[in-house]
Structure formats: structure tokens, C-alpha cells
Design a protein that fits this description.
There is one protein chain. By secondary structure, the chain is α+β, with helices and mostly antiparallel strands. The chain folds into three domains: 76 residues, Membrane-bound Lytic Murein Transglycosylase D, Chain A (Roll); 49 residues, no CATH class; 150 residues, Muramoyl-pentapeptide Carboxypeptidase, domain 2 (2-Layer Sandwich), CATH 3.30.1380. It is built from eleven helices and ten strands. A three-stranded antiparallel sheet has the order 3-4-5, with helices on one face. A three-stranded antiparallel sheet has the order 8-10-9. α9 packs antiparallel against α11. The longest helix is centred in the first third of the chain and has 14 residues. It is elongated. The termini are far apart.
């Protein structure tokens, strides 16, 4: 009852001196909030907007008092509460611009690409771990912070930084089909093996640099070769989501020394044989490691600069 009364008081404060706004062609919610100098979350609450991308021309919005105190609602209390500013972009969006050459800007919650197309950055759905994993928006890719350096057992249940991927984004970056991805592949030497990887965003150069540094440590070679694979257009086991291997942006090292959560017998138990030195060198050159996931995949390294810097 107490919480209910507080909410009513906050709503009254929110609607005090409210005004109306009629949506025009070309309007979007983030631009309206900025123009009217109101908090976008308050604007959503005042108008019961569940999806900010589905407002319509001619729709009349209640513009709350700009000086009112923001109301706590689902987006605020969610474990993956939005960190976007009034323009619908945040520091993580800027990382995409820095590390993906095809990304040109983020504006009003849209990620723009060099061909002029765009994708919604944050769909504002606040879902469970499983649902986010299955249907991540672009912002969700930063859902968990990847921790570089020393590793042990993943710090908490379902800690899987990097497993949240927006497939449409990756298709846009690396290619929308197997043939399109192949057009960007090159062959490099990996400890005597000829392997195919993408040239997009300099992935091939970074992998060659990692190989050069790893070659200074002969004792590590048994973990690195023969590799489990690089490019292969395929789904992740047990899902309908494309693997990063489909885009030529990942490498699996020697399967013999690797562990995978789906192979765990007799119940879940974290396992790893890959030396920390290998992990640190890969991370130095832009690759995250699947051995840091609760759903561990210790042979797996994927090129994800935006999660490392």
C-alpha cells in the first residue's frame, strides 16, 4: 500500500503542468524528448509506451513536467537497465563506431552503416538471460562486462560476456550469406596450417600478430595446433543462432586440450586446461575467450575489440 501511494504521488508530480504534442512525420521519441526537454523514460511512462519505435504520426503525446522527479519503472529496476542518453546512444555505441569500420554513427537510438542503412540500438525489451541470449539487440551485446587477464571459475551463474550477439549486426558487418562472407576471407599461416579468416576490421592482421607472439613460446604450441576450425557457416550447437565462425571471425584451438560445457558429464562442472599466457596474448590482440563463460568453451576465441577496450 505504501509503494502504491508513493507511485500515485510521483504520477501526480509527473503530470503537473503537462502539455500535449502531436507527432509529425519524421519524429522519433528521442528527438521529441530532447526538443521538449523531458526525460525519455518519463515520456514513456506518461504515455504508456512499451516500444518507443512504434509511435505513429498524428498520435498525441502527453509531455510531462520537465522538472518532475523521474519515476521508477521496469527499465529502471531491470538488471540490464538502459544506459542510453537522451539521444538514444551511449559509450558502448561509440565503441562500435571506433572498432567497426562499417559503422558510421549512432544517433537517436539508431546505429548507422556506411551504406546509409541503420539498425535500432536498444529495443527497450528487458528480458531474462535466456531470452536476451536468443534475441539480443545491439545494446545487449554489452550486457555483461568482459574481464581481461587472470581467470578461474566464472564469477557467477550465467556470466557469459560476449555470447550475447545480434545476428543482424554481424551479418551486416561480415556478410549476409556464406558466399558473401567468403568474398572477404583470406588465408594465413597458423603454425604450419593454412586457415581462412575474415579481413574485415583487420581480424586477419590481429590473428597473425597473435600467432607471431605465441610462436615465441614453443611449449604452448600443443594447445594451438591442430586447430578445431575457423570459418564455417553453421549454427551454434543446440540453437538456431549462427556461430561467429560463420563470419570467419573466430578460431577454435586444439580440441584435445579443450573443454565445452555441453560435453560435461554427470552435471555441470567448470573445466579448463588452456594456459593463461595464451589467453592474455589473444586478448591483447582483440580476441575474447570462451573459457571465461559460465557456459564455457575453452577452445574458442572470437574477435571482439569492442568488449576489450
Amino acid at each position: 500500500m505504501k509503494i502504491y501511494k508513493i507511485t500515485i504521488l510521483l504520477l501526480l508530480a509527473l503530470y503537473a503542468n503537462a502539455q500535449n504534442y502531436t507527432i509529425k512525420s519524421g519524429d522519433n521519441l528521442w528527438a521529441i524528448a530532447k526538443k521538449m526537454q523531458v526525460n525519455i523514460k518519463d515520456l514513456e511512462v506518461a504515455n504508456n509506451i512499451q516500444d518507443p519505435n512504434k509511435i505513429k504520426v498524428g498520435q498525441i503525446l502527453i509531455i510531462p513536467n520537465a522538472k518532475s522527479k523521474s519515476i521508477k519503472h521496469k527499465a529502471d529496476i531491470s538488471p540490464r537497465s538502459s544506459s542510453t542518453n537522451d539521444a538514444g546512444c551511449d559509450a558502448n555505441a561509440k565503441k562500435l563506431i571506433k572498432y567497426y569500420t562499417a559503422v558510421t554513427k549512432c544517433q537517436e537510438n539508431k546505429i548507422y552503416f556506411s551504406d546509409g542503412s541503420f539498425m535500432i540500438y536498444d529495443d527497450y525489451r528487458k528480458e531474462s538471460f535466456k531470452k536476451v541470449l536468443q534475441n539480443a539487440d545491439i545494446q545487449d551485446m554489452f550486457y555483461q562486462h568482459y574481464i581481461k587477464g587472470s581467470h578461474g571459475i566464472p564469477p557467477k551463474y550465467n556470466y557469459d560476456p560476449g555470447r550475447f550477439r545480434n545476428e543482424k549486426f554481424f551479418r551486416k558487418i561480415y556478410g549476409n550469406s556464406a558466399s558473401e562472407v567468403r568474398s572477404h576471407l583470406t588465408t594465413i599461416n597458423w603454425f604450419g596450417q593454412r586457415i581462412k579468416v575474415t579481413t574485415i576490421n583487420g581480424m586477419d592482421k590481429h590473428l597473425k600478430a597473435a600467432a607471431k607472439e605465441l610462436s615465441h613460446y614453443p611449449k604452448l604450441r600443443k594447445y594451438l595446433t591442430p586447430i578445431g576450425g575457423t570459418f564455417k557457416w553453421r549454427y551454434i550447437a543446440g540453437t538456431h543462432r549462427l556461430s561467429v565462425h560463420s563470419f570467419g571471425a573466430a578460431i577454435d584451438i586444439n580440441v584435445h586440450y579443450s573443454a565445452y560445457w555441453r560435453w560435461s558429464k554427470g552435471g555441470y562442472k567448470y573445466q579448463n586446461k588452456i594456459p593463461l599466457q595464451i589467453v592474455k596474448i589473444f586478448e591483447k590482440h582483440g580476441f575474447i575467450w570462451g573459457g571465461k563463460w559460465y557456459h564455457y568453451d575453452t577452445m574458442h576465441f572470437e574477435y571482439r575489440l569492442e568488449l576489450l577496450y
